[in-house]
Write a structure and sequence with these properties.
Layout lengths: L5 E7 L8 E7 L17 H14 L2 E7 L1 H7 L1 H14 L7 E5 L10 E4 L2 H4 L1 H24 L5 H4 L5 H10 L17
Parallel strand pairs: 1-4, 4-5
Antiparallel strand pairs: 1-2, 2-3
Helix pairs in contact: 1-5, 2-3
């Protein structure tokens, strides 16, 4: 179709009870050499970390978008995820020609785009974005684990595990909890 800079966009962190939603937009070169690139959820943490470095080495451009829990509570998680993806695109330099967005919803952008259901399994640039978003978010959650000890953010990354729900019952919620989410709002 004549486009040369195509950005794949994906997000991580829609489901957790705590922490931000993080999106990445990645423009890869035409002949990227990224073996075993796949949806981040289908890779081990160690493999994601390896690919994270390789993607940063080879990408033409990477943009990150992060929406904090206060904004998630204000606008809802779907709107926050879409906003994080839009922010990731805005942070790309150079500006892409075309967007491939993982999921079923387009993002607010004047750039031409296509939504790709299960795109993180079907498109190299979306898979790369999936990995960048997931590793970035996981690293943030490990930092939050140090700031808010007792919740186990380094292990469960904010997801609603039994250990996390037990910690919320014991300690209440902390500033990075999503206060409108079931499992948290009962303890606000």
């Amino acid at each position: 179709m004549g486009f040369s800079r195509i950005a794949g966009i994906d997000e991580a962190g829609r489901g957790p009870l705590a922490g931000p939603v993080v999106a990445a937009a990645v423009v890869l070169p035409e002949k990227a050499n990224l073996d075993q690139l796949d949806d981040s959820k289908r890779l081990s943490p160690a493999r994601r970390e390896e690919l994270f470095g390789a993607i940063y080495e080879q990408a033409i451009s990477i943009g990150i978008g992060l929406i904090d829990p206060i904004e998630i509570d204000r606008i809802n998680i779907l709107q926050a995820a879409l906003l994080s993806m839009r922010t990731a695109v805005v942070n790309l330099r150079p500006v892409p020609d075309y967007l491939l967005v993982d999921g079923t919803f387009p993002i607010a952008s004047t750039l031409p785009q296509e939504v790709v259901k299960h795109g993180d399994r079907r498109c190299m640039s979306i898979a790369a974005a999936s990995i960048i978003a997931k590793v970035t978010r996981d690293r943030l959650m490990r930092l939050y684990d140090e700031e808010f000890p007792g919740f186990g953010f380094g292990q469960h990354k904010g997801y609603g595990t039994k250990a996390h729900r037990d910690a919320i019952r014991t300690f209440g919620c902390c500033p990075i909890h999503r206060k409108t989410f079931r499992g948290v709002k009962e303890f606000v």
